[in-house]
Amino acid sequence: MDSVQDLLVALARRHAFADLEALTDDPEVAAVCEFGQRLLSLDAEDFAVEAPQVPPALRRRARACTMPQTPRHQPRGALDSLRPAYGLLLEVIAIRWHRRELSPMVAALHIASEYLPLLAFEPALGHAGDPARWPAGLSAPGSRFGVIGDRECDHTKAEQSAANRTLRVAVEPAEGWRTYFDRQHSQVAGALATCVADCRNPCTAMEWVQEGSREDLALRSQVALAFADTPLVRLRHAAPVGHGFGVPSPEEVLEAWERSRTVLAKNEVGSAAARDDGFPLPGLPSLFSAVAAVPVAPSTLLEDVTVHLVKLLRAAEG
């Protein structure tokens, strides 16, 4: 390296935002680094925190990936569409892979698996699972969705509780809203997928879905449920003593993904994972796109944060 500035640029290009923030004495660079680190860490609650030093276009793209922190907050961000958030997840997964940070990479895959059913439901709902906009049909006569203790319902007790809560959380105070998203919204995602794809005693909860598209939704939801149970996602739970022990090697991750692709390749949606689309885990963006029924590609949000940082550093050097 010819200079300290070259070192800082190299850190920016490696997306080492926390390291760069610790070394810089430029307040603007530090603020952009903090913004980038929130994105890389998937600290979605704070994506939308005001950061005037960050270009507005980058802040807008980050806000599209965040959950609203109150029932009436506008814009609705990831409750309008999960596609920007999944683009960011794919970009984070790729960066973590290239940096060989496999524990946070596996954690990002786990997050993707939890909400994947809502990505499947988005075309039918017209949104990404916003509790303020659930279709009335979920609570139609004869529906067991959210009925706690109904033994005919295939939902677990935790899913029944989460489904019951989601039907009323939009009128709760902001604190209750945030607690619901912290603890129960991902269970609602799984409950919806079970309703349409895996229920042994169907009720009226899914009759609001147009009959012509219900079969397609069921197939995509079935694949979303299957992804959550693949060897790749189960890597997060493979440690003998809690999470954080027994970090997988790159070879173990690739081997688990190959086994997962075989498991998923039982229908035309799951077989999308077999495509070689140039991603570090080949076929993962294609799988998410097949489940979403629209293209979902890795975002360039973190790369664009890096480009902006390099410009700031070069300008300071000049």
Structural commentary:
The chain has 318 residues and is mostly helical. Mean pLDDT is 94; it is low at 239-243. It has helices at residues 4-13, 17-23, 27-40, 56-63, 83-98, 102-125, 157-166, 174-183, 185-197, 211-228, 231-234, 250-264, 284-292, 301-317. Among the domains are: 4-88 and 301-317, no CATH class; 136-207, no CATH class. The protein is built from 14 helices and no strands. The chain starts with a helix and ends with a helix. It is globular, with a radius of gyration of 21 Å.
Q: What is the number of strand segments?
A: 0
**Number of distinct helices:** 14
| Overall pLDDT | 94
- Class derived from helix and strand content: mainly alpha
Net shape: globular
Q: What percent of residues adopt helix (DSSP H or I)?
A: 55-70%
The span between the termini is 17 Å
Strand percentage: under 5%
Instruction: Give start-end ranges of low-pLDDT stretches.
Output: 239-243
Order of helices and strands: HHHHHHHHHHHHHH
Query: Main sheet?
Result: none
Could you tell me the radius of gyration in angstroms?
Answer: 21 Å
Strand and helix map with partners:
Elements: H1 4-13, H2 17-23, H3 27-40, H4 56-63, H5 83-98, H6 102-125, H7 157-166, H8 174-183, H9 185-197, H10 211-228, H11 231-234, H12 250-264, H13 284-292, H14 301-317
Keywords:
318 residues; mainly alpha; 55% helix; single chain
Overview in brief:
The protein is mainly α. The protein has helices at residues 4-13, 17-23, 27-40, 56-63, 83-98, 102-125, 157-166, 174-183, 185-197, 211-228, 231-234, 250-264, 284-292, 301-317. The protein contains 14 helices and no strands.
